[in-house]
Design goal:
about 90 residues; mainly beta; two-stranded antiparallel ribbon
Amino acid sequence: MNSNMNIPGLKDVNIEKIEEVGERTALHVSLPRKPHKCPACGAMTTKIHDYRIQKIKHLKWFERLTVLFYKRRRYACSCGKRFSRHPLRG
């Protein structure tokens, strides 16, 4: 299930999966891929090094506690630096 939804506090998030876990809702989300600036050399890169799953507590959504599982993308620059973007910023 890939869909775009407006969730309070998040913008342009790709919802990959929604699960009901006990009394909580678990959303598996990612952000669209785009070039990012290397914090070491300032060059733009789109090369992906790997992905990490980050668990983020979120506010109630439809009166249920919500947990986000964010698929955090880590980039690799040609200078050798590996970095990830902040989960909820550009």
